[in-house]
Design a protein that fits this description.
Layout: H1 8-35, H2 42-81, E1 86-91, E2 94-103, E3 106-115, E4 123-129, H3 140-146, E5 149-154, E6 169-171, E7 174-177, E8 184-189, E9 192-197, E10 199-206, E11 209-213, E12 215-216, E13 227-229, E14 244-250, E15 253-258, E16 268-274, H4 275-278, E17 288-294, E18 302-305, E19 309-312, E20 315-316, E21 334-340, E22 345-350, H5 362-371, E23 374-379, E24 388-390, E25 393-394, E26 408-414
Parallel strand pairs: 12-13
Antiparallel strand pairs: 1-2, 2-3, 3-22, 4-26, 5-24, 5-26, 6-7, 6-18, 8-9, 8-18, 10-11, 10-17, 13-16, 14-15, 14-16, 19-20, 19-23, 21-22, 21-23, 24-25
């Protein structure tokens, strides 16, 4: 390399030039940091945008690192929780687990889906009906495919002859059916879950006249009940009870009153009950139907009922008699849903009534759900209804190949 020698005057001038350049650059940087926030100059905007983008990129990196750590912890937790099980990744934060447990020396085959909601952010859990109206049944594969779901488990009890769900069912804040025997139900919120025994708090009101509504789109249990039937029920309301009456409401106004079964308006409903209660209303009255639940679940998105409780406040709790479910005792195929303290959702399908899997009692199922870390859990419809669908196929072994036709299911699908 050549060496360049400068005279003293030139060296002094170069040193001065460097000092001036440094001062100019420093002033520019100082000006940027102090004045750019209050100036809308295009030049400054072009200079400062990369700084903003860098901050966004840093936040994205932090989120990715955090997500990777969460994913690793989830993987390790699942392996520890389900030793000797076959574990498959369905999608990020969604695991399908197959295992066999032994009770009194007899095998029980179990399928579990566990969902980490911090990781599976692109998915949403909802109940799904077999069809647009309540009087329908479909296989779980059809229900899952119609709702573009990757996970599906049979849902609440239903009337086998008609497919009408028996118990509370709300989808997208719309109440389809009301509770029976105040049975336990799961409320699904944007930020988590709750499980409680649910009562209906509903009434119709016209002026100063207010009448309690005992249920919505459910079979009549007592002649004294006042029931509401919406278009989800079908085209025609059920017959009136003895000494009964019904009236049709269209766009919040009574349009027809009769002792016979009335057509359900597309934009309204039909109220059916004792004439002694409903004769306070007349054609033309403006009327409002108010529907709530006890507990008052504010901001609840969906509700699906079951019964009985399995785990309540982290303790085994099986209130079979209180919920009038004594007929479903013994060892049977079982379905259950619950959630953990850190908000992981757990879905369970237990095979039964066969040599290779004898099924579970409700108490065995309750202890199993607690062992998985559920702080609250409940039983769903079971027996012949128990069927689980994962990634396009049935993963358990229901008595009827592909599972029987169902009224509804609980499904996990991608957010739209």
């Amino acid at each position: 390399m050549d060496t360049i020698f400068l005279c003293p005057e030139k060296r002094l001038w170069n040193i001065f030039g460097i000092a001036v350049n440094f001062a100019v650059v420093s002033a520019f940087i100082f000006t940027q940091s102090i004045f750019v926030p209050i100036m809308a100059n295009d030049l400054f905007a072009k200079v400062t945008n990369p700084i903003i983008d860098t901050g966004q990129a840093s936040m994205q990196i932090i989120n990715e690192v955090s997500s990777e750590a969460e994913s690793k912890n989830f993987d390790e937790m699942i392996k520890k929780k389900y030793p000797n099980a076959i574990i498959a990744d369905v999608d990020k934060g969604i695991k399908h687990i197959k295992l066999t447990k032994y009770y009194d020396g007899r095998p029980v085959k179990i399928n579990v889906v566990e969902i980490n909601n911090k990781l599976a952010k692109n998915y949403t859990l909802t109940p799904a009906l077999a069809s647009e109206t309540l009087h329908n049944k479909r296989t779980i594969s059809t229900i899952a495919q119609n709702s573009n779901s990757i996970i599906a488990l049979n849902g609440t009890f239903f009337k086998p002859q008609t497919g009408v769900p028996l118990g509370t069912l709300m989808i997208d804040e719309k109440m389809y059916t009301g509770p029976i025997y105040d049975r336990v139900a799961m409320g699904i919120f944007d930020d988590g879950y709750d499980i409680a025994r649910v009562q209906l708090d509903a009434f119709i009101k016209s002026g100063k006249t207010q009448v309690k509504v005992d249920n919505i789109n459910q079979p009549r249990m007592l002649a004294t009940y006042v029931l509401a039937y919406t278009p989800d029920w079908g085209k025609i309301a059920p017959p009136s009870p003895k000494y009964g009456l019904q009236f049709a409401v269209d766009e919040d106004r009574i349009i027809e009153i009769s002792t016979a079964a009335l057509k359900i308006p597309e934009n309204g409903y039909v109220i059916v009950g004792p004439a002694s209660t409903l004769n306070k209303f007349k054609i033309g009255d403006k009327i409002k139907l108010n529907i709530d639940t006890i507990p008052e679940w504010k901001n609840v998105r969906h509700i699906i009922s079951g019964g009985p409780y399995l785990v309540k406040n982290s303790e085994v709790f099986v209130d079979m008699t209180a919920q009038k479910l004594s007929s479903i005792g013994g060892k049977n195929p079982r379905s259950a849903i619950g959630y953990t303290e850190d908000n992981n959702l757990i879905l369970v399908a237990v095979d039964g009534r066969e040599g290779s899997s004898v099924g579970m009692t409700l108490m065995q199922l309750a202890n199993f759900m607690k062992s998985l870390g559920c702080v609250n859990a409940m039983n769903l419809d079971g027996g012949g209804s128990t069927v689980m669908y994962v990634n396009g196929k049935i993963v358990n072994n229901p008595h009827v190949k592909g599972g029987i036709a169902l009224s509804n299911a609980i499904v996990l699908s991608k957010k739209s």
